[in-house]
Structure prediction request, 274 residues.
Amino acid sequence: MSLIPEIKPQQSLELLKALHILTRDGKINQDSRRKLKQVYHLYHFIEPLMLKVLEEQKQLVLVDHGAGKSYLGFILYDLLLKNHPEAHVYGIEFREQLVKSSEELANKLGFSDGMSFKAMRVEEAMHSTDIPAKVDITTALHACDTATDDAIRFALERQSKYIVLVPCCQAELAAHLRQHKNKAIKHNSLAEIWRHPIHTREFGSHLTNVLRCLQSEARGYQVTVTELVGWEHSMKNELIVARKVAKYKNSARERQLEILKEFGLEEMRERFAY
Prediction:
């Protein structure tokens, strides 16, 4: 049992050392404490989804996009899924060295039967036969720029039962707002919301997540948005959880298209409304 109160009793200390959350002598610093708190909070939201899937069908496929060093995948597997041999975690990461490191760590910990790592981008994963056609949970933790959008597209393509996202930076929409700013200010007083550069960035990020939520709703998901942890721990703090409940929702698509038109973003329809 760990003497560090933040660490769960069933947690592998060897894993936390390998992920550099713990030092070699088993201590934890302030930065690692914040990182661990974020991952544990996310685990708190994902655990009931995993248990529900396992209860309903006795097996589970979870795909983690933009996995990086696979912090999330390893924590999920270590705390719960290692006790369910019918569950499998796939980590998708385009950097081959990180994939290799994750494979080596999974082998070292005896997790390789239930964890696989694929060196590919999300768009490649979308139609890859290396990943089961049926996916139960799709996750993306701080997947940078448009990688979160790609993860959503993957989840919709594979009809994932649940989508769990903590978006990272996304500069694409803000760049479009900036490009058409002068024209917008002349014809729409709402353009004052993003007239200043810092507001352009913040509003662009907020609007991006609104469009992501509407895209999921339009494709039949029930969406909730909440705070992951306190803002003192991370500014990338928005948690989006979507559950498949229907086939399509036309009203969400209509609102999405209205927003794109209102803000002069029709050219981004392919990104957000498909």
Q: What stands out?
A: The first strand starts at residue 60 and ends at 65. The chain is about 45% helix and 15% strand.
